[in-house]
Amino acid sequence: MSEFSQQRLEHRIMEAIGSLIVSGAIKNPHLSPFTSVTRVELSPDNASATVYISSVPDNRIDPSVKALESAKGFIQGRIAQILKTRNTPVLSFRRDDSYREAERVNRLIDEAMKEIDG
């Protein structure tokens, strides 16, 4: 599969899961409605996909990831209906802390710039 096709499939999975979260189709009280899918990484053979999750209230990320893991079968079934591919990737959900790391790096840069400027 070409890189473009794989990226398009990743994007469609990301949109589908995001839509399920926003619409309330996933019935789990631990899933925050402010949860978002930040990226999806498909394996080269499209057999598995890692879905990265973030949430606005930072303390809601872990319960939301657990809620999505417990609804994995339901989500995969809905994705199979949307994608209409021969095989649906096996999903795994992970918390995405990249924004925290970006904030830390920006803070370090700001501190270094203040020291340089005197």
- What gross morphology would you assign? globular
What percentage of amino acids are in beta strands? 15-25%
N-to-C order of helices and strands: HEEHHEH
**What is the CATH C-level name?**
Alpha Beta
Count the strands? 3
Which keywords apply here?
single chain; about 120 residues; alpha+beta; globular
Task: Explain the overall architecture.
The chain is built from four helices and three strands; from the N terminus they run H-E-E-H-H-E-H. The chain has 118 residues and is an alpha+beta fold. The protein has a single domain, classed as GMP Synthetase, Chain A, domain 3. Strand 1 and strand 2 (48-55) form a beta hairpin. The longest helix has 21 residues, at 3-23. It is globular.
